[in-house]
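Following up on my earlier thread - several people asked me to post the actual chain instead of describing it. Fair enough. Here it is, all 460 residues.
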Amino acid sequence: MKDDARALLTRLEKRDPGLWPAGNVSQTRLGWLEVPRKMQSEASDLTAWAKSIDQQTIVLLGMGGSSLGPAVLEAARTAGTYSGAGGRRLVVCDTTHPDTVGSLDLSDAFVLVSSKSGTTLEPNALFAHAWSQVADPSRYAAVTDPGTPLAQLAAERGFARCFENPPDIGGRYSVLSYFGMVPAALIGYDVAEMCERALSVDMLEAAALGMTIGEESRAGRDKVTVVLPEAYAAFGLWVEQLIAESTGKQGIGCVPVPTTEPETGADRHVVQLHPQSPQDLAAQFMRWEIAVALCGHVLGIDPFDEPNVAESKHNTNEVLESLPIETLATSDPGKVLSWLSETVRPGDYVSLQAYVPFGQDAQLESLRRSVRDHLGGSAVTVGYGPRFLHSTGQLHKGGPNTVVAVQIVTRSAGAEVPIPGKPYDFGTLIAAQSVGDHRSLLSHGRRVLRVAVDDLSEIG
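Reply from S.P.:
Thanks for posting it. Predicted structure:
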C-alpha cells in the first residue's frame, strides 16, 4: 500500500485532476495544499494586527467550514491545554436560533464576519443583527474571497480589516487559511508554529490513511469512527464535516462518527487520535485534508464539490417566500426510541438533528449515547441545526440511503429577535430551515421522524 500511497500523493502534489472523475472541480479547489506556507509568511503581520485589537471577546459569525475550525481551536484553548499568550475568548455563532443569537454579548466584542462567498444567508443575517447593536466599523473585520459582496461591504463600511482568502480553497478545507488563522491569532495562538506543524505532517502516512478509509468503506466498513481524548472532542466537529461533505455523494460515502469512547461494530472503521497539545491539531488538519482528498479517489467521487448542499438552501428560500410557514406534524418525543427500533436496519446510522439553542452539548452527547446503546451499538451522530445544512447535510441527502434522521425542534419559537432588512425574524428563519431540510430529506426517500420538545429529556 505504501507504494500506491506514494504514487497517489505525488499526483496530488502535482494537482493532477485525473485523480478524480471527469468534470471534477479540483482545479479551483487545491489551494489548501500550499496555504500553510503562505500563512507562515504572514504570521508576523497577523500577530501584530491581532495584538492591536482592544476587545477581549471575539465573536465569529459564520457557517460550515468558516466556523468549525475556529470552534475547535477555542475549545482546545478553554480546555486549559494551551500555554500561548492571549487571554481573549472566541464565541462562534453559527446558528440562527433566536435564543442563542439574542443572548450574544457584543458590549466588549470584536466581530469577525466569515463567509467564502459573501452571500451566505446565515452570516449575512447575523451581521445585520450585530451591526444593529454595534455600528462601529473599527470593531469589525471580514474574511472572504476576493471581490465578494462581503468584501465590498467591508470596504464601504470601513471595517478595520478585510482578509481576502485565496479563492481556490473550499470552505471545509480552509482551516489553515485566513478563515482559521485570523481567529487563531486573535485568541493568542502562534500562527507560525501552527503552520510549521501543518507543513511537517507525514504526508505519506496521511495518503495511506485516506486509501485505507476508502477501501474499508467499499468493503462495508463505512462508519469512520474517530476516537478522541475528551479535551479535544471538538475536533470531531471539524473532521465530521470534512468527511461527510467530501465523500457523501452519488449514493456512496463515509459516515463520520466522532466519539470520546471506543465504539465497535461490523460496519465500523476505527481511527484513534492522540493529540497532546492544541498545536498538534494543525498537523491533524493537514493530515485529514490529504486523507479525505485521496479517499475520494478510492471511492471514485469528487471530494471538492457539494452537489446537494444547495437543496436545503433553495427549499428554505421557498418557505420564506410563502409565509406563514406551514405547520409540519410532529410525533411523540417519548416514542423516538421505539420508532428507531422499528426503523433502523443493519448498516444504517442515526442522525439526531437538533434545532435547539447552543449550550446543550452534554445533553446532546448523552442522548446520542443513549440512542446508540438502545440500538445495540449502531452508529449515531448528533448536531445542531442549521449548522449541518452546510456540512454533514451533504451526506444525509447525497450519500447512501442508510440515514435515519430524527429532527428535533422546540415547541416555542424562542425570543423574538428581528433581522434588520428582512420581513421575518430569526425564529421564523430557523423554522424555515428545518422545514426546508425536511422537504429535502423526504425528496431523497430518507426516513425522517420530527418531534417537538421543550427539553431534550422528553426524548425516549
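The radius of gyration is 21 Å. That should answer part of your original question.
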